Amino acid sequence: MRRLIGVSIALLVTASASGQEIPSKDSAKTSESPWKHSLVGVATITQVSYKDWAQAGENALSWTLSTDGKSVHTGSASRWTTSYKLAFGQTRLGTQGLRKTDDRIDFESMVNVNPKGFVKPYLAVTLKSQFAMGFRYGKDGSRTAVSKFFDPAYLTQSAGVSIEPIPEVKLRTGGGLREIITSQFNQYADNPSTPEVERTRIEGGVEAVSEVRWPFMENMLLSVKLELFSPFREMQKVVVRSDNTISAKVNKYITVNVNVQLVHEPNVSLHTQMKQTIAVGISYTFL
Which CATH number fits domain 2-18+35-285: 2.60.40, 2.40.160, 2.40.230, 3.40.50? Predict the structure, then answer.
């Protein structure tokens, strides 16, 4: 198990590190680099303060930092794509302490064979987790820890075929493994039908992933990613993750983002989880 996890993380790190190679001056003169990079950072902050305000209100402060990056290596027989999304944000309302409002680690590394063909075989690994401790708050202000860094962590390794019917749409399907890793908060990996408490869950299954990046206006982009995973042992318990964003570029530095995330994890909750965000912030394109 440790060897399998190590291979997955090593592949992710190798893909990201390789994307930082800088070609020599001589090679740059003779040929274009096979690497293409993009990295966008966004910072948002909101502050509200009251003093002798007749209609009352609560002082508030919230902030969020996020990055969205991608490195693509295109060769004659393959294309290697590594993408990552990182985010963290907090808010303080009135006399309450800081509370987490955003926390995300999302990596994906995929190799496509025959990149110029209509049908492209692929190998992919993914990692999803968070940076900081997460709490569930009660009405009386009490809090209960429910998650922390790499607890849980979701990893997948998959292989299959992908197609791009149009440049804006990518579809892929295949088989693979999915691991849920915990240390303290075992409810994410535990099988309630067994007497033992499992800290790790490993499932084989079928995955289907669809991605859409549609610039429907000159300064607006629709990004949609839908991930489905159906375990072989319980095909009816389909894990669904949907990440949908509309980005509007007001000017060179100001961006408006509307994001809706949906998660349906039958072994964790019978209800579909939803997170909705509207953010206006400063955006800077590093690469």
Answer: 2.40.230
- What's the per-residue H, E or C state across 16-39? HHHCCCCCCHHHHHHCCCCEEEEE
3-class DSSP state for residue 187? helix
Alpha carbon distance 274, 142 (integer Å)? 23
DSSP-derived secondary structure letter, 193: T
Rounded alpha-carbon distances, angstroms, from residue 278 to 65, 248, 275: 14, 11, 10
For residues 98 and 90, give the distance between their C-alpha atoms in angstroms, rounded to a whole number.
6
Hey, what are 70's tokens? 């991608």
Separation of alpha carbons 287 and 283, rounded Å? 12
Distance, in Å, from the CA atom of 243 to the CA atom of 227, rounded to the nearest integer, reads 9
> What sign for the dihedral angle of Cα 221, 87, 276, 12?
positive
Where along the chain do its domains lie? 2-18+35-285
Indicate the length of the chain as a whole number: 287
Residue type, 78: S
* pLDDT tens digits for range 133-174: 999 999 888 999 999 999 999 999 999 999 999 999 999 999
Closest CA to 62 of 100, 18, 23, 9: 100
- How far is residue 164 CA from its own chain's centroid? 21
Residue tagged 């190998």 (tokens)? 123
- pTM equals 0.86
The predicted pLDDT at position 139 comes to 87
CA 177 to CA 171: how far, in whole Å? Answer: 19
Residue 2 sits at φ, ψ, to 5 deg, of: -65, -40
